[in-house]
Amino acid sequence: MPDAPDAAQPATVASQAAAVCPTGYLCLQPSASSARAVLVKQGDSRSFSGGLQVSQVSNQTGVAYCVSSTPYGYTSGVRKTETRTHTVLSVKPAGVCAA
Q1: CB 94 within 8 A of CB 64
Q2: Per-residue model confidence (pLDDT) at position 10
Q3: Residue 96 has what pLDDT?
Q4: Coil, strand or helix: which one is 92?
Q5: How far apart are CA 56 and CA 73, in angstroms?
Q6: Phi, psi angle pair for 6, to nearest 5°
Q7: Collapsed DSSP state (helix, strand, coil) of residue 95
Q8: Contact present, 19 and 29 (Cβ < 8 Å)
Q9: Which of 89, 16, 5, 97 is nearest to 52 (CA)?
Q10: Are the CB atoms for 91 and 40 separated by under 8 Å?
Q11: Residue 35: predicted pLDDT
Q12: Is the peptide bond before 22 cis (omega within 30 degrees of 0)?
């Protein structure tokens, strides 16, 4: 049955697609595939005791966000998505980022 492998492929592709993040939120997608995204409303801050291991951070807000994480920290720009595995310690609107 040559069609059988192709039938399974769309499910695999769909599971690897970027998670949809609603407008007005910073979304953190945990690395565990079954875990639900953590939504942070525009303007809010959030800290994660012990850190939250994520595979994607999507900023669908109108403000940049400071992302304190290990092994690096960065600014998530407006309407930008970072797709890489890292551990987020906290997120807060830019302008209050540590140097």
Answers
A1: yes
A2: 39
A3: 58
A4: strand
A5: 14
A6: -65, -30
A7: coil
A8: yes
A9: 89
A10: yes
A11: 86
A12: no
65-70 β-sheet, strand order? 38-41, 25-30, 46-59, 80-93, 65-70, 74-76
Chain-centroid distance of CA 17 in Å reads 13
**CB within 8 Å of 31: residues ≥ 6 apart:** 53, 54, 55, 85
Please report the pLDDT score of residue 61 as a whole number. Answer: 97
Distance CA 91, CA 17 (A): 24
8 Å CB contact between 35 and 67: no
Q: What is the DSSP string of 25-64?
A: EEEEEESSTTSPPEEEETT--EEEEEEEEEEEEEE-SSS-
The list of the chain residues with pLDDT below 70 reads 1-19, 96, 98-99
The size of the chain, in residues, is 99
